[in-house]
Amino acid sequence: MANLVQELNSLDFSVYIGGPMQAAVKAQHDASISQVNFIKEVGFVPAVPAVSGGAAAIPAQLRYVDFNYDKSVANPDQGKTLQQLKDEGKVPAAATVIPATINTVDPFIKSAVNLKVPFLSMLTIPALRIDEMTIDFNAKLNSVETQSVGSEFQGSASVSGKFWKVKFNASASYKKTNSSTSTTEKTYTLGVHVRAVNDELPAGLSRILDMLEDSITAI
């Protein structure tokens, strides 16, 4: 009979259980490094090294995106007279008519706006975190032992006589067979379930992004 306990003790659980856990730790490490590289490569203009005898080194600069568009704003000069415009210094004191460049009729006028936005504040920064990992390891051992016993007997006898002399012949044979087989079936299954989520940004990085949003300027 196979020793099933010995079979189970021979399993290297550090490989079956520890292997997936080490892989999860490495995946978490790689995700953190990926976040750092994403910020450096996408959010900043690469630094320019100094040239010997030439220009000085230029450190890495935050990457901005410029937006130019026309915005409708209230016309501050609507309905104003020539004298009011003179008092505000918008037209010369010697002017006799309102210049064509000043619109005193339309309630709204178009204003060209230039918007500078930090590129990082427009993107979703990857922050993958392994939230849950379940390892299912099943070991199934089946031991089957069969034994068969067989026997066979053969015999014969003969008697012959002539007057008072008797001749007796006999023969016999006996055969016994015994065989046994033992079979152990091994079945191993390993299932790893990993649940990863996009984690909240670290407090320091979140504050930096808040500061970058405050730096958005419209001119």
What does this structure look like?
By secondary structure, the protein is of the alpha+beta class. Helix content is 25%, strand content 44%. A hairpin with a 2-residue loop joins strand 5 and strand 6. The two termini are 88 Å apart. The model has no long low-confidence stretch (mean pLDDT 78).
Q: Can you give keywords for this protein?
A:
single chain; alpha+beta; 3-stranded antiparallel sheet; two-stranded antiparallel sheet; 25% helix; 44% strand
Condensed summary:
The chain is of the alpha+beta class and 219 residues long. The chain has helices at residues 4-9, 13-16, 18-43, 82-87, 203-214; strands spanning 44-45, 61-62, 64-74, 108-118, 128-162, 165-198, 217-218. A 3-stranded antiparallel beta sheet has the order 3-4-7. The chain has a two-stranded antiparallel sheet with strand order 1-2. The protein has a two-stranded antiparallel sheet with strand order 5-6.
